[in-house]
Amino acid sequence: MALRCDLGELITAMVTPMTAEKEVDYPALEKLTRYLIEQKTDALVIAGTTGESPTLTHEEEYEILYCAKSTASGQCKIIMGAGSNSTQTAVKSSKKAQELGADAILSVVPYYNKPSQQGLIEHFGTIAKSVDIPIILYNIPSRTGIDMAPSTIAFLAKEYDNIVAVKQSNPNIDLVSEIKMLVPDDFVIYSGDDSLTLPMLSLGAHGVVSVASHVVGSEIKSMIHNFKSGQVVAAANMHKILFPLFRKIFMAPNPTPIKALLSKLGIIENNVRSPLVELDEKDRLELLECLCTAEEKILNL
After folding, report:
1. Of 107, 88, 84, whose CA–CA distance to 163 is shortest?
2. 111 is catalytic
3. 28 in a domain, yes or no?
4. Given 40, 77, 167, 221, which residue is catalytic?
5. 138 noted as active-site residue
């Protein structure tokens, strides 16, 4: 069955490059966008948590969207992180994303104020009615303090045609089965954690919103395609090789490690905004060694 909206299997949650003065580095953003397209990403999420959205102004988010959209030139989809714990703010950001040409929005479960499941239905329903572009729900209880129930996801998927997917960042794999059993066939589930991509694929997920794809995008894409084409052993072998890197990339608060790795590879500068702090040299070298080990094993496959 055709999907109600296909944003691809490999979506990269893109970091926001910063200068030494902690300003958004737009030339580096253009370079990174082109690099990620070469890494075979199908879509980019800009101004998400990995993009340090808590420290970005709305004006910066809109400029980042414009820059990424212009640079991509249709070679990949651009998805804007437009969520908020204020429904009014989320609606405003979602409308602006649509106005500026975003292909879709990623809308996170409201954080800190911890609404009820009915509150989530009203929050996301209000957003869905305010725009025409596709919406990916973002369920990440470790950051928001609450879990969006499978029944809530299913209700929203059935009620609103432009709510097309969920990024599920909950390590409880049983919930993927519950969601899959309740949602329409054309609704998409994305893994929100690189290490859970293959397990979630086995339960019917479509792909991943990835952080590791900044450096191993082609390999993740290969893993997904191998699994879907029935080459399960090959997919499992790639997962086992990449698994240590998937975990190591979260050795410190995201996106600190992946920015350090991108800096070591010469793609962006290693700068994050306060209250985050950069990795020290010892941890950066340990992270690079983990990537090099994975690359050596891939060559020997």
Report:
1. 107
2. no
3. yes
4. 167
5. yes
